[in-house]
Write a structure and sequence with these properties.
homodimer, 427 residues, alpha/beta, Rossmann fold, Dihydrodipicolinate Reductase, domain 2, Alpha-Beta Plaits, 3 domains, eleven-stranded mixed beta sheet, six-stranded parallel beta sheet, 17 strands, elongated, sodium (chains A, B), amino-acid biosynthesis (chains A, B), NADP (chains A, B)
Amino acid sequence: MKPVRVALLGCGVVGTEVVRLLLEQSDDLAARVGAPVELAGIAVRRPDRVREGVPADLVTTDAMGLATRADVDIVVEVIGGIEPARSLILGALKSGKSVVSANKALLAEDGQTLFGAAREFGVDLYYEASVAGAIPLLRPLRESLVGDRIHRVLGIVNGTTNYILDQMDTHGAGFADALSEAQALGYAEADPTADVEAFDAAAKAAILAQLAFHTPVTAADVHREGITDVTAQDVAGAKAMDCVVKILAICERDGDRGVAVRVHPAMIPRTHPLGSVRGAYNAVFVEAESAGSLMFYGAGAGGAPTASAVLGDIVAVARNRVNGASGPVETTYAALPILPMGDTVTRYYVQLDVADQAGVLAQVAEEFARHGVSIQAVRQEGSGEDARLVIVTHRATDAALSSTVESLRSHASVREVASVMRVEGDI
Amino acid sequence: MKPVRVALLGCGVVGTEVVRLLLEQSDDLAARVGAPVELAGIAVRRPDRVREGVPADLVTTDAMGLATRADVDIVVEVIGGIEPARSLILGALKSGKSVVSANKALLAEDGQTLFGAAREFGVDLYYEASVAGAIPLLRPLRESLVGDRIHRVLGIVNGTTNYILDQMDTHGAGFADALSEAQALGYAEADPTADVEAFDAAAKAAILAQLAFHTPVTAADVHREGITDVTAQDVAGAKAMDCVVKILAICERDGDRGVAVRVHPAMIPRTHPLGSVRGAYNAVFVEAESAGSLMFYGAGAGGAPTASAVLGDIVAVARNRVNGASGPVETTYAALPILPMGDTVTRYYVQLDVADQAGVLAQVAEEFARHGVSIQAVRQEGSGEDARLVIVTHRATDAALSSTVESLRSHASVREVASVMRVEGDI
């Protein structure tokens, strides 16, 4: 069998591991693919920085040349970022090469262009590693849940922030301390913005939503709130209700009305399957019409886990090429509107420091009622200077809930809105 | 495009749902497959028992005729059991039809013959629905974790017994009461043997082990213990250690020495991801070399979830046929020996009723030491008539652990071995 030739663009932590696996597992891969799988070349910016184990004779700085070279069948992009990755991927697709990518930012920003090119040139574009690292998730959603209708996807898709929140939950630490510790242990970067401001999670949410609902969704369509405002008090409040604070990517379909995609901190019941996701692990919980509730759990990042997902895709596209076939095309036939965040139905947890006077509870309840929000539970704690009301609402639109909170902020009897957080995941 | 013609063998709860999905989702399926997907016929034993929604003109009692008919491309077997399913599947494969099956008992008993026939005739045999119902599990293991090495698989693969144990854990009930309740609610059958004696779980364990380790494993190779001896006391003992009793299918590879496959009750930490699997849900926890720890969770059984898995397989094999390709063949190239249960390394929890005398603890500890078993923790409870020793061992061979327990049973100071259970899942 004519070998399948693989070009690698980028050779950082993940790329190096992909090289290692391709070389070490070559017999296994050949058996799986039905033909030998060969490394055709490795494009890097800094050849002097190439790690041990990477065959120096294959290294080049001419990425576009490699991506469009006649002898190459598959291009693996593990550079990340928008450019030059986008141009390289388009170059590869237009030259009839299949592409495997781990690039969440690019797919969330311009997936449509790339999927369109793959469709037009009849080649595969696979991207399992772009969301939730090692967890086989995207291909099961694309291929196993075909014929099913997905209603909702709830995900913990960023290991850094899950680690931080888990530390806050376990040790009662504040956000700043938990972040410092995460950085010291290598779970968070020196500049943690992409993670703690949820840009990373928002890109992944867009990719998940697009796949789940067959409709175009970009990162700009995702309502995004990071974890920088989560306090030890929020975490303690959750614990008191047997809940845990997680930052969740939530993708919902409202029939044919539209889809809503958001990322924000939320309290979920500790007994929810997502509640048991500790440390830097990821998990994606799917609610589908026929399959029911499913969850996929595993390592969200790291060289070996991510490389494992890339390898799974390499084998799949290689087998497709050997068989003269291609995988299921990305379809966005539903073309559903993106619904505004204000329309999203959710629940709020609100903690108020109030003046300890008769009638405060009634006034606060009236404020909720005025906005059409029902209260599920209220707890009054403390007295005098320390009087606190802890309220959990029933489901209402986010617009109604947030304007209630705004009214409360300026309410005469409310000294401070100490904590506000959405409540999700009641199953 | 020439339509892909699907024959259904069996039309019970799952078959009826498969028919419904094929008819209702036909446009979606055609888009996914690249050709129309048509129902060619439905073979049943009792035409008078066919449910509403099933096209009567397609119903026949000639199953073999339908399975080998010239116009049929794909045969879906949802009859279950060994015969006539085996003969029908072999007949279909030998006639060049691809086969989709949900038949765990058959695959666990004679998978090798069926995979061999599929290989020989160059057609697909897919069986996602045979293990863990709706959860996309087998295809991710076969296709996404290719090139990875799986060390261990731990699974909750039987919803009936997980439901019963969950009830015992939540309500402190004894086994008999929990079983009666499960039967009343439809979670357990009138004759619950296949579930509570772990025959169902053992078949699934064999299928998982074969797939994970690329080596032949049949149900007979699986060490099997059901849940009928699990007591409320065992469950309480687990709770006191912040553990929970689950019945686990455990598949382990010991390098190239061999594989060990077993199903039995075990205590696992409540914080283990498998510890959060409630009610009749299933989950399979995989430990792989590159991917790390993964877990797949979802509904293990039920008409709609199982039909959803069958449909995913139908689409995959249909696409393969349209593309003139076939899926990855089942390989059992590793041909590893099956290791005896006695060699399996595990840990024990032992609760002993002892005479309340000085030196009993030392004597008991000595008994463990004599068998080469180290003790991790001992707790002494009660006194006088109620003196109890609760022991958790370190890892040792099952042979050493069980002979220790046998010695203790006849030990002068031990009045009764009140509880013995393996402890697993420390991550």
